[in-house]
Amino acid sequence: MSQADVAAGLGVSRQTVIAIESGRYSPSLPLAFRIARFFELPVDQMFDPEEEES
Amino acid sequence: MTSTKQQRLTAPAVVLVGGTIIAAAIAIGHGWPNAGFAEAIAIVLAAGYYLLAGSDSDLGAVYGNRADERQVLVVMRASHISMLLMLAIAFVGVVITVALNKNYWQFELFGNAGGFAYLISILVLGAHEEQVLDSHDTK
User: Fold this and answer.
1) Considering the entire predicted model, what is its pTM?
2) Is a pLDDT exceeding 60 seen at residue B137?
3) Are B42 and B15 in contact (CB under 8 A)?
4) How far apart are CA B80 and CA B63, in angstroms?
5) Mean pLDDT, to the nearest integer, of A7-16?
6) Is A42 exposed, middle or buried (0-12, 13-18, 19+ CB in 10 A)?
7) CA B45 – CA B58 distance, rounded (Å)
8) pLDDT tens-digit series, residues A12-39
9) Rounded to an integer, what distance in angstroms lies between the CA atom of residue A49 and that of residue A43?
10) Interface residue A6 vs chain B (CB under 8 A)
11) What is the pLDDT of residues B9-68, one digit of tens each?
């Protein structure tokens, strides 16, 4: 699945998908839930706040 | 994200209308040949903005009216930096023109307009946020 496919599925730009992937941008709560739903995973498995803090 | 033609046309239309108004002012003050040159520049700029608005980039998303939440945040940060720069230039302009004993009201106008707009925006947007919270609390 390409970044463009993920971006289209989430309704955001490809640049934002890249920024989230590389950790340069933390998505809002609604977008985080959309991402989790898109990948059919729980939010806490998609995003680990402790990992971001370290 | 895709951009409709109408979304892509907003930025070029604003540039074209603004450029045409400036060209009209140039026609009044400096004659038609200069105005034609200004209008030609406006048309080229509008075409450039149309191409930019369709590009797959942050700038394209912003000018194509399809910015997502991260790009809106980027625009807000960029607007803040731009405002600070304009206020700094206005301040330097006032200092220099006062020192040279020249008219400084133009710089003062820009500085005050920016400063007041900033304060009023905080008041209005802040009050709006409080109202939203109040309405949620009462439920």
Assistant:
1) 0.78
2) no
3) yes
4) 18
5) 94
6) exposed
7) 19
8) 999 999 999 998 999 999 999 999 999 9
9) 11
10) no
11) 999 999 999 999 999 999 999 999 999 999 999 999 999 999 999 999 999 999 999 999
* A chain contacts of residue B1, beta-carbon cutoff 8 Å: 7-8, 11-13
Cα-atom radius of gyration of chain B, to the nearest Å? Answer: 20
Taking contacts as CB-CB distances below 8 angstroms, the residues of chain B near A3 are none
The residues, any chain, with a CB within 8 Å of residue B121's CB and separated by 6 or more, are none
A-to-B residue pairs, Cβ atoms closer than 8 angstroms: 33
Nearest beta carbon to residue A31 from set B67, B69, B71: B69
Q: Which residue has the tokens 């450039």?
A: B48
Instruction: Name the E strands within B3-85.
Output: none
Task: Check if the beta carbon of residue A35 is closer than 8 Å to that of residue A27.
Answer: yes
Residue type, A45: Q
